[in-house]
Design brief:
Helix content: 40-55%
Bound molecules: zinc ion
Largest sheet: 8 strands, mixed
Strand order of the largest sheet: 4-3-2-1-5-8-7-6
Mean pLDDT: 81
CATH superfamily of the largest domain: Class II aldolase/adducin N-terminal domain
CATH architecture of the largest domain: 3-Layer(aba) Sandwich
Low-confidence stretches: 229-256, 269-274
Strand content: 5-15%
CATH topology of the largest domain: L-fuculose-1-phosphate Aldolase
Structural class: alpha+beta
Number of strands: 8
Distance between the termini: 72 Å
Number of domains: 2
Number of helices: 8
Length: about 270
C-alpha cells in the first residue's frame, strides 16, 4: 500500500487525467486509495478533479471518521467505504461519469455483449446496478449484489464505478469501460455488433485463467460460452443475461433468430424443390 504522501500524489495525477478525458464535469466524480488496513485518502466534496492539490485531500478511517484534511470528504464516501469494507483486495476506488458509458447507464442498457477480447480479459462483465440517490445509503445497497465479484459496474442514471488493486488499475478499468461503451455505440449505429464466437470466448476464458484473472465472465445475451457455472457468481448478482427483455440487444437477438429461422425454412423448401 502506498504512503499517504504517495497516495496524495497519485490521486492528484489520476484526478487530472479523469478530468482531461472528459470523464467528469465540474465537481463530479471521486477517487480514493487505501493507505493501510484502516485508512484511505479520498477526494474532497465540491472540488474539480482536474485541479486538485495534495492538501485538498482528506484522510478517513473505514468507519468514515475524518482523521486529517481541511476539507470535507466526498459526499459519496459511503460507496467507497462499502467497497473497501467488502473487499480486502481492493486498494483503490474510482467513480466518474464518462459520457458514453453513463449514456448506457441512463438508457438502462447493460454493456452486455462479448465483442471485445480486452473487456472479457480484464473485466469479465459490466453489470448495471439499480438506481440509487447519489450520496445516500441506497448507493452501497444498490451495488451490494455486484461488489463481491465485479470490478466495474454501471450505476443506473448516474455513472460508473471501478475498483482496482491500485489507482492505476481502477483508472484503466474506467478507460476500458468507456472504450467498450464507445465501440458498442458505434457498432449499434452501424447495425449491431457481431459477437465473438463461442470458441473465441472459450479461448479467452482459458487465457484469463492462465493469467490468474479472478472474477466472473458473465457478459452477454447470446454467445453461450461466457455464462459461469452455477454458484460461480456471487449470490444476488443480477446477471447481464437476466436483463429485462426489450432492451435493444435482446430485441435485436430475437429479430436475428427469427430472420435465421425464416431463412432456413426458405432454404429447406427451395432445396426440396430442386
Ligand atoms: Zn457520481
Amino acid at each position: 500500500m502506498p504512503s499517504q504522501f504517495e497516495a496524495e500524489r497519485q490521486i492528484v495525477e489520476i484526478g487530472r487525467r479523469v478530468w482531461e478525458r472528459g470523464y467528469v464535469a465540474a465537481n463530479d466524480g471521486n477517487l480514493s486509495i487505501r493507505i493501510d488496513l484502516d485508512r484511505i485518502v479520498v477526494t474532497p466534496t465540491g472540488r474539480s478533479k482536474g485541479f486538485l492539490k495534495a492538501d485538498d485531500l482528506v484522510v478517513v478511517n473505514l468507519k468514515g471518521q475524518k482523521l486529517a484534511g481541511r476539507l470535507e470528504p466526498t459526499s459519496e464516501l459511503a460507496m467507497h467505504l462499502f467497497a473497501y469494507n467488502s473487499r480486502s483486495d481492493i486498494g483503490s476506488v474510482v467513480h466518474a461519469h464518462p459520457p458514453k458509458a453513463t449514456g448506457f447507464a441512463v438508457a438502462g442498457v447493460a454493456l452486455a455483449q462479448c465483442i471485445l477480447p480486452e473487456v472479457i480479459l480484464s473485466l469479465g462483465g459490466v453489470p448495471i446496478a439499480e438506481y440509487a440517490t447519489p450520496s445516500t445509503p441506497e448507493v452501497p445497497r444498490s451495488i451490494s449484489g455486484f461488489i463481491g465479484t465485479y470490478s466495474a459496474m454501471l450505476l443506473k442514471n448516474h455513472g460508473v464505478l471501478t475498483l482496482g488493486k491500485d489507482i492505476y488499475q481502477a483508472y484503466y478499468r474506467m478507460e476500458t469501460v468507456e472504450h467498450f461503451a464507445a465501440v458498442s455505440l458505434t457498432a449499434l449505429q452501424l447495425g449491431g455488433a457481431s459477437p465473438l464466437s463461442k470458441a473465441n470466448i472459450e479461448d479467452l476464458i482459458r487465457v484469463r485463467d492462465k493469467l490468474g484473472i479472478a472474477g466472473p465472465v458473465d457478459i452477454c445475451y447470446d454467445c453461450g460460452a461466457c455464462t459461469p457455472s452455477d454458484g460461480e457468481a456471487g449470490s444476488g448478482t443480477q446477471r447481464a443475461s437476466e436483463q429485462p427483455a426489450g432492451t435493444p440487444a435482446a430485441a435485436e437477438q430475437d429479430t436475428d433468430q427469427l430472420v435465421q429461422a425464416v431463412l432456413e425454412e426458405v432454404r429447406r423448401r427451395t432445396t426440396k424443390q430442386a
